[in-house]
Design goal:
The chain is α+β, with helices and mostly antiparallel strands. Helices cover 55% and strands 16% of the residues. The chain has eleven helices and eleven strands. The strands form three sheets. A five-stranded mixed sheet has the order 6-8-9-11-10. A four-stranded antiparallel sheet has the order 1-4-3-2. Strands 5-7 form a two-stranded antiparallel ribbon. Helix 3 runs antiparallel to helix 4, helix 3 packs antiparallel against helix 6 and helix 7 runs antiparallel to helix 8. The longest helix has 53 residues.
Amino acid sequence: MTENAPAPPSLASRRAPHNWRAKRILPRSLYGRALLIIVVPTLITLAAATFVFFNRHWYTVSTRLTYAVAGDIAAIVDLMEKTAAPENASDIVKLANDKMDIKVAFAPGAAMPRPPRVIFNPLRTLLNIALKDRLRYPFQIDMRHAPETIAVRVDTPNGIYTFLSPQRRIYTPTTEVFIAWMVGSSILLSAIALLFMRNQIRPIRRLADAADAMGKGQEVPWFKIEGASEVRQAGAALMVMRDRLRRQMTQRTAMLAGVSHDLRTPLTRMRLQIEMMGDTADTRELANDIAEMEAMLNAYLAFARGEESEPIVETDLAELIDDVVQTARRQNPNITLTIEHNASLNLRRGAIRRCLSNLIGNALRYGKRAEIAMRQTGNTIEITIDDDGPGIAPDKREEMFRPFTRLEASRNPATGGIGLGLTIARDIARAHGGDVTLEESPLGGLRAKIWLPV
């Protein structure tokens, strides 16, 4: 962790709403979007095929069938109206029943009955058009006269003709067959595609979980690389990056240990020479400088070594904060603690303890009292540490996170530390996937805010 490392994006920036409103209703997960990509074209194809079927096939066939029935009814009416012999009328009725599959009944001098209630039916609409085109007499269509039967009543000057025709004469079953085939095949193909897509997305989820664990500073073992070639390439690159980061951390720790060893030797010689020179104002200043240099080395080296070697364990965060606060109260009892939400996180317990101790120590060093609060916002744990001290100017707050930095304009350098407290606190938080920021406190001083992902 270096002081120039870019700050991780805040939760607000991660969840900022999209400018395009349509994107707000889109699924956020890759699986949901893949499902949308599969289902929407399938539905569009089904709708287009159904439209073409009804427009070209069903409408054309149904129109021809209804015109055939309407023509038979019109022919029977004309023949019955033109014949005067009863035996000829019976022959026409028998011919209609045997050859046209239409039953005919005649009621001389009867009046047209009350029309049945009209219910929307595409076949009735087509038959009505055909009868208007073929008949020259008023008529009624009753689609509910009997099951699977159509009744047509024709009002002629001689009486009422009732024609009963089976519904199959104007109905084609290919409609249900076609729709069932389209829906069934679409469901089958979508199910197969979804199963395949789920197998392809599983490696991506595993890769995302590994990257998230690395961002939180957790140990990520080498996992089985599966999926498409691009996913395999990304997984291999992530594991290579993990090994490189681990090597860099090990090399940094080893380098700092070597620097510590090399610097301690001349510092020890300088301390011995100062002690031999006697106790004067100059020697006391030199001794203070040497002690400060050793403190700076010890502080940074202890952090670097501890962060690398400490294991990650599940920790009750509220209990840890309470323990740190109880320790701080031994020096200053003016500390209040508020726990709004508790959480158990996987973290380096000692490192988080040091982060909290540094920030609480700063609050008590520069203020008379401190208020600590812990709450959960979404998938984030927020810990705020407020003091009533002099605070820090807004344009100087980010500079305070640089190593060995102490702002004399806002903090008394005589009472300050070595300038590594905030740097170490931010490095620890970022190593766990979070961050540390400075804000203005409601108490009038400074607020240090730690946020950690759940």
